[in-house]
Amino acid sequence: MEKRKHSYHFHVSEVVDNKIEDVFGFNFGGHHDLKEMVEGVVASGTMTEKHAKELVCGVRLLHHVLKKYPGNPIFQSIKPSFKEFKDALKKQYCSCESK
To answer: DSSP readout, the chain?
Structure first.
């Protein structure tokens, strides 16, 4: 079965003096369903929906950058522990296989 590709747009704004100011935005995609992953974390009862969203987005974005720049020395110290953490997170909270 072919995996469905998901496409997302992240938009970051800053609130300054009660006014929303655009900072940046970017597109991001992959085979993981971020909504499903957040729902899995929330359903576990281990954290709030807000924190589940932050966790899922942060892990997915960092994982993407690590894959794009595997030889970058800045990432060498975290790669082994990040993979272990990511795999444990996915095993506990979602039905997706490890990549």
So the answer is: -PPPPEEEEEEEEEEETTEEEEEEEEEEEESS-HHHHHHHHHHHTSS-HHHHHHHHHHHHHHHHHHHH-TT-GGGTTTHHHHHHHHHHHHHHH-SPPP-
Pull the structure tokens for residue 22. Answer: 């655009």
* 32-81 residue pLDDT tens: 899 999 999 999 999 999 999 999 999 999 999 999 999 999 999 999 99
Q: What is the pTM of this model?
A: 0.83
* Beta carbons within 10 angstroms of residue 13's beta carbon: 12
* Ramachandran area for residue 47 (φ above 0: left; ψ -120 to 50: alpha; else beta): beta
